[in-house]
Amino acid sequence: MIDLSKSYLCLQCRICSAACTAATVNGLRPREVVLRLAAGDPTIEEGPEAWACVTCYACTEQCRAGIDITDIFYYLRERAAAQGRIPPPYRAVAKSVLATGCAFPNARYTARMRADLGLPVFCVAPRAVEELQTLCRSAGFPDLAPKEAS
């Protein structure tokens, strides 16, 4: 379980945002997320910030206050997922993993490259996929069917 009380320790030095590898691509500002969480902003759980983090841990590694910033992003993702708020690209990858055991389809190019390297044909054992599905159901993994508009 994440210790959210540490978010109050933020020194507002902005080093986490400076270290953030996603910031230049999508404008993520880890410091703002930490401050909003510390302030009890209820909208932080509804925004896109949780999914903008690439979980590289650069912010956590640089944080002088010792805040586990990446864990905060994981926490926000878990909360959003539990409420069924999973962005379509993430939902598609999760559905693929649950159906096939692979995040992406095994392309012909990949199969050819494996053959050229003398590697065996790649396939996930059906039993492994079944075990993954059972584990996800047991853990309460959210239903990945698209939510109908109300």
Describe this protein's structure:
The protein is mainly alpha-helical and 150 residues long. It has two domains: 4-82, Alpha-helical ferredoxin (Fumarate Reductase Iron-sulfur Protein, Chain B, domain 2); 88-138, no CATH class. Helix content is 51%, strand content 0%. It has nine helices and no strands. The radius of gyration is 19 Å and the shape is globular.
Can you give keywords for this protein?
51% helix, 150 residues, Fumarate Reductase Iron-sulfur Protein, Chain B, domain 2, 9 helices, mainly alpha
The biggest beta sheet, please?
none
The radius of gyration over CA amounts to 19 Å
Backbone structural class: mainly alpha
- Strand fraction equals under 5%
Oligomer: single chain
- The domain count comes to 2
Shape: globular
Low-confidence stretches: none
Which whole number gives the mean pLDDT? 87
Helix content: 40-55%
By CATH, the topology of the largest domain is Fumarate Reductase Iron-sulfur Protein, Chain B, domain 2
For the record, give the distance between the C-alpha atoms at the N and C termini, rounded to a whole number: 33 Å
Question: What's the total helix number?
Answer: 9
What is the fourth-level CATH superfamily of the largest domain?
Answer: Alpha-helical ferredoxin
- The overall strand count is 0
| CATH class descriptor name of the largest domain | Mainly Alpha
